[in-house]
Design a protein that fits this description.
Elements lengths: L2 E4 L5 E4 L19 E2 L3 E2 L5 E6 L1 H5 L4 H18 L7 E7 L6 E2 L4 E5 L12 H17 L6 E3 L5 H19 L9 H13 L14 H5 L4 H19 L9 H13 L2 E3 L1 H15 L1 H4 L4 H9 L5 E9 L2 E8 L21 E7 L5 E5 L5 E4 L9 E3 L8 E4 L1 H12 L6 H14 L2
Parallel strand pairs: 5-6, 6-8, 9-10, 11-17
Antiparallel strand pairs: 1-2, 3-5, 4-5, 7-8, 11-12, 12-15, 13-14, 13-16
Amino acid sequence: VQEKTAVEDGWTKFKFGTSVKMSTYLLAFIVADFKCTEVYTTNNGCKVRTCGRPDAIDAGAGDYSAEKSRDIIQHYEAFYGTDFPLKKMDSVAVPDFSAGAMENWGLILYRETALLYDNEKDTYNNKARVNTVIAHELAHQWFGNLVTMEWWNDLWLNEGFASYVEWIGTTKSEPTWNYLDFQTYSDKSRAYSIDSYMSSRPTSIDVSKPDDITAQFDSISYSKGSALLVQAKMFMDGTRSEPKTENFENAIRKYVETHQYNNAIQEDLYKKLHEVYSENRASVVGDMNIVEVMNTWTLQMNFPVVSVRRYSDELIVLSQRRFLISDSDTSGDKSSPYGYQWYVPVEYQISDGDVQFAWLKPHSTHLIHFNYSDPNAFIRLNIESAGYYVVDYDYDLTERLRTAIKGSLDLSVPEVQGMLLFAKFYGS
């Protein structure tokens, strides 16, 4: 609001500043007898408020979301490498709102349960929900609003990316929660529950009618999309590389900088990933066309099983096949442009050695040197459970890994969750 003046008959005239260039679906107006919290100002001068029913705001139920919105915006400015482009960010709790939230630019609408938190009455779960939904919607302010998908076939770019970044925003704003530890199980379990069947769908699909749009608001767009970005972060940077790198984040920053205030398609993001990978990662883990890599994950449904088998006394062989809950009946199956084969990024560790990396390419195998004569030797794949696939060890390698886990092998929370998820879906 630039000007506010009283006019005749008790009316008030408001003059608004010119909006930034934006997609029409992000425009919103609110006319309500609401009240707002005090202003929380970011380091770059953005004014942040939470608004809602006067009695709720007076009771302090909007303070937590306003404060955390400010904090998360500041973290996202660093993550995206671009300052929040608006002068204000209002979040409004609507008593009767069908969606969980809507990321209108600078005026986000929420259900009351997703924005208001009463420290005297509400539970930790209420607080966690408020934080994660805020983190998700604020992620959209850059990835979705500042850069908008060209068409609905790339909806996963909006929702999958916001689902990925919300874990980062929540962890940054509430570091004692260790929230990232839950990302693997939360996203993968939701995605696998759909993506393990022939009734699943590719992450990116053709959209020609309104029903095609609404059908995409599912766990494939949100959870699988997020899990694929976790995997991309892994092959761009490694889960345990020292020193830590930000190749993935730098690609995102280049993408946002190039396409801000405009539309983009998924291949635009892939090209930035490929550009940064080629410059900084290819010499370490091997040259690869990242556009083609990502297409195998987003243009066909389902995911692979990576089989780990004995090849000789000194070699292990990795191979892949498509995972289905029931793979005995493929009648009515959908065709795939890649024959249900993927470029699989594999991080692995032999005993207490360094974490190593390999690409398991479509329709091929990969050999790994392994000393079978050492009874204590073991191998484990999918470090931190960052890859969007399950691992099937043969009996001997399973027993070796089981012995190591019972001994001194210390697994992270995401890796334990990944193994439990494998047992749930693979029955092993």
